Amino acid sequence: MHIRDIFKNQRTTFSFEFFPPKGPEAAEALFATIADLERLRPTFVSVTYGAGGSTRELTNDLVVRLQDQTRLDPMPHLTCVGHDEGEIHAILERYARHAISNILALRGDHPAGEADYDHSRDAFARAAELVACIRRFNDSGAHPHPAGFGIGIAGFPEGHPETANRLHEMDYLKAKVEAGADFIITQMFFENRDFYDFRDRCRLAGITIPIIAGIMPITTIGGMRKMAELALGSRFPASLIRAINRTGGDPEAVKRVGVHWATEQSRDLLDHEVAGIHFYTLNRSKATQSIYDTLGVRDSTDLLDA
Ligand code: FAD
Questions:
Q1: 3-class DSSP state for residue 288?
Q2: Number of independent structural domains in the chain
Q3: Which one, 3, 58, 105, 291, has least CB within 10 Å?
């Protein structure tokens, strides 16, 4: 469903993020996860896009498969890195043919091992230019929905590591909205205060589109370290680290601590009228299921008037 129509009908969205599986075994595991999570009737699910190489095709294929073979509403992530305009157009055309409703438009991470990647080599050096490109595609009438693709963008409650000036950063975010974005999904954060302050700063800057909070339940210490590497700048509060340290590294206890933390964050976000929560599932179902259970949410349609 187009994001505009979703927010007309549903005050709060619950959505899930997957990454494309690398081989047949991982694909089977992901589809088992998806079967479990389908019961929770997420408002939409998103599929990440690799920084380059063959996993990109896997994203496109997975999105189309989810659209054609499940009841889920898949939203692909699309990045500027390594693409010329023709390639972006070909991807948009394929998604439009399959009536994909929404796209998350990103600049993208630099390819592995290329920390000094020069984004000016790409057709679009910034996400704002990709948003404008998708908007032009929408205006051409090439999509079956009268409004074309709904367009999501990334937001960073704790700030993006490449922009030290937080006032400038808000200007850049506003430029993405003015280029035609319909909603924001945030980077994961572990302290809700950071999200509320970000939401307030957006409103002060005149950014009024829905802001969906990104929540990642920590389930392993290794996973936490990996996410800290991928989402540079993320702050892990002392209270969370203390709780994880108390487990002495016991894997089941770490999971309980991480899921409890994410559940409390989600409960508080619902109490503060968050537009939506996007769960970084890491292709697993148990943590998300447990959060729904503890929040007393049978499935996402319970949030229609939450
Ligand atoms: P932009 O909005 O282009 O911003 C990039 C940097 O440039 C920021 O520091 C910004 O402040 C700065 N900037 C913007 N405009 C200007 C300007 N005019 N002048 C100077 N500086 C400017 N990465 C992937 O590779 N694949 C994924 O699937 C993926 N999914 C993600 C999902 C979410 C919800 C989030 C939050 C991030 C995701 N990322 C993904 C990571 C993201 O691509 C990186 O964090 C990237 O570095 C920033 O992307 P952006 O779309 O915010 O870029």
A1: helix
A2: 1
A3: 58
Which of 226, 232, 224 shows the shortest CA–CA distance to 254?
224
From 56, 160, 168, 170, give the residue whose CB has the most ligand 1 atoms within 8 Å, as the site to mutate.
Answer: 160
Does residue 304 sit within a domain? no
Range(s) of the domain holding residue 36: 3-297
Pocket test for ligand 1, best of 16, 56, 75, 106 (most atoms within 8 A of CB): 106
* pLDDT at residue 304, as a whole number: 65
Residue 193 falls inside a structural domain: yes
Question: For residues 182 and 3, is the Cβ–Cβ distance under 8 A?
Answer: yes
127-131, 264-268, 296-300: least confident range: 296-300
Does residue 137 lie within any of the structural domains? yes
pLDDT at residue 40 greater than cutoff 90 = yes
Q: CB within 6 Å of ligand 1 — which residues?
A: 48-49, 51, 77, 79, 106-109, 126-127, 154, 160, 162-163, 169, 172, 176, 185, 187, 214
Q: What is the pLDDT of residues 272-282, one digit of tens each?
A: 999 999 999 99
Q: Diameter of the chain by CA atoms?
A: 58
What was the pLDDT predicted at 8? Answer: 85
Q: Counting atoms of ligand 1 from 1, which one is nearest the CA of 110?
A: 25
Alpha-carbon distance values, 20 to 25, 49, 150, 159 (Å): 12, 8, 21, 27
Please check whether residue 302 lies inside any domain of the structure: no
Distance set, CA 143 to CA 4, 61, 274 (Å): 15, 19, 30
CATH number at residue 161: 3.20.20.220
